[in-house]
Design a protein that fits this description.
Dna Topoisomerase Vi A Subunit, Chain: A, domain 2; 7 helices; 4 strands; globular; alpha/beta
Length: 145
């Protein structure tokens, strides 16, 4: 892990805070569960509901001005990010891809569902193997349950 733990914590904390007011769109149920395990309390929506991207985004953003787009970082996720961005902006709304770009640039994970384990690895490597429980990790990020 080459990224300072503080950078990762700060980014995830800012994302969690923004999620209090702005919904997040992820690819699947496991991505939702991964973010929830980090203490995210806002709206998190998965795309996999058997509907077209356009109809699903329309449902999610109907009463909103902005949405955070957070698909995985593989080829499919990159294409999905662009399709979602175009769809949201085509509806006259704001598509926030900042957090997707920042998380991707840290090279921590290939998919959103792996983010909690990556954060745990950052903390453990920073603390050089000391026993660290989940409460400490969440407290370190600034998310308290």
């Amino acid at each position: 892990m080459t990224q300072p733990v503080e950078k990762v914590f700060e980014l995830v904390e800012r994302l969690a805070e923004k999620n209090d007011d702005v919904p997040i769109i992820v690819e699947g149920r496991n991505d939702v569960e991964g973010l929830r395990s980090l203490g995210f309390k806002g709206e998190i929506h998965s795309l996999n509901h058997g509907k077209s991207i356009f109809h699903r985004v329309e449902e999610i953003i109907r009463e909103r001005k902005e949405v955070i787009i957070l698909p995985d970082f593989d080829r499919k996720g990159i294409a999905l990010k662009e399709a979602l961005r175009r769809c949201v902006e085509g509806m006259g709304k704001t598509a926030d891809t900042y957090y997707w770009s920042r998380i991707r640039s840290l090279n921590l994970v290939n998919c959103i569902e792996d983010l909690p384990r990556a954060i745990e690895r950052c903390v453990v490597s920073e603390r050089m193997g000391k026993t660290i429980n989940r409460y400490y990790i969440l407290t370190g990020i600034g998310i308290k349950r």
